[in-house]
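INPUT
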Amino acid sequence: MTHDPVLDRARPVRRRSPMEEKLGWFGPIYYWMSKNLFSSFWNSVVSLICIFILYKIVPFIVDWALLSSMWFAETGEDCREATGACWAVIPVKYRVMFFGVYPYEEHWRPVLAIGLYALAVAITCTHRFWRLKLLLVVWAVTLAIFLMLMWGGIFGLEFVPTTQWGGLPLTFLIFSSSMFLGMPIAIALALGRQSKMPVIRILSVFTIELTRTIPLPMILFFAAIILPLFLPQGMEIDQLLRVALGIAFYFGCFQAEVLRGGFQAVPKGQYEAADAIGLPYWKKTFKIILPQVFRITIPSVMNGVIAGFKDTTMVIIVGLFDLLTATQAVVSDPEWRRYFTEAYLFVALVYFLFTFAMSKYSQYLERLFSFGRR
Amino acid sequence: MTDNVSNNLAIELRNVGKWYGQFHALKDINLNVKQGERMVLCGPSGSGKSTMIRCVNRLEEYQEGEIIVDGVLLDDSVKNIAAIRSEVGMVFQQFNLFPHLRVIDNLTLGPIDVRQMPRKEAEDLAMHYLERVKIAEQAMKYPSQLSGGQQQRVAIARALCMGPKIMLFDEPTSALDPEMIKEVLDVMVSLAEEGMTMVCVTHEMAFARNVADTVVFMEDGVIIEAAPPAEFFDSPKSERTRSFLSQILTH
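OUTPUT
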């Protein structure tokens, strides 16, 4: 929270009531409760109901998750002694969850690849580095090293085909490629939909409307199974790439409509002012209109990005081994089968951390794009 | 104030007609603006005065006749439109500054991206014009941090940075609080004194009387009367001009 010197000075010092004074250390708590929990009759009723529900649930959760749980065990058998959670499934199996069927001795490679990837994401998210050429170089280098590490086959690294990639690196790779391909598709379709040239406009509308009516699983099936049948003989596109392209296209069509709303919300005067200066179409679009479109659409675009992150789990249906699928494989192991709750809770925590970071970043972007507005 | 008005035409409208669908917005408009001439357009709202100047830099298309700006015919040719827009500056009622760019970047955008001027040079130019409109100290702020009058002066400076031969003003003071109107009019007066060709749509009749070479009255898409200010205000020929003037001058 930022502090405004003027406002801080103006903020009145609250005078404590006699009741609060009498209660001593409990005074502030009493004040908070009477203000927030019991300020009116119905507020008190709702508060009491909530307190009752928490009273019933919290002890059970604490007991299951903490008091009666087991954190370390060699095998699933050892966990039987615990009446609560068996968190041991995580230290024992986390490598399979994070890296899937990638060869066990080679796990340092995806670790390194993810580290590198995180660095590239950090650079991309930092306002200071927002220069298109710089970011293109960063991502070209990152992707090249990422793929080299994962694939191997050179510098004495063992070759690992994409069919054996799995877990977190796969989730990241599908997510980032669908975002990086999807956003340009979205911008192109949104611009196309508003184009004065009928052919481009009709094609864009057709593409968007058609894609939006198809469920994502069907697009993935198409990309994974049907598309290869149409490719000319001898031409082969990696399944991973096909799937990423499919998600990117799906994502792009939805985002195109979000952006279109943004385009319509930019005042007409902005287009006219750019025209009056004599800016050519592309400069007008990229320097004047799009920055304002992004400012307007940040909440909905980030909404789509977060949904897109979770949509990557759909690749399960075409047999790719992402974070969730890898976890599913872990809990299908008979030894650990009864502890699926713990494994899924852990993986939910991982997804939460990423999506929470994204929504925090979205708020940062909104502040950044407020352009001196207060 | 007619000394620096030459006989060369800056803007020529010949039999111009414009429709919005079924609505006939401009009817057979004939109008010449000489180089260095200061012209004020007035008339009731919906009379087509804004539409007319917006046709001059092709923010609106026209369907009949022809418009020639600085010797270039304004038609569908992208090249001609670009040539005309780079010679014609425009100031809008709602300022239309770019909210995501600082004041200085609002000004340098045109010189850098249209005129291919080096950034340093463009910034010097921008500061020069910001000093002209007496607002240089606001260069690093965003438009939303400025008052309406300041924003409009920035908008004038932005148009001037392109080095236009002609300036169009579309009701530049109509969206301003009364105490801010003067600071904008002062800038416009000093521009006029320097011999800029100006076409202003405005209801500021004092400005028209003191600064304009010609005052044009429009109604229903037709030019009713065009005359020097002394003649226009003191002995208007048309009955409609007279009733319009009596309405706006009595208040």
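end of record. The mean pLDDT of chain B is 90.
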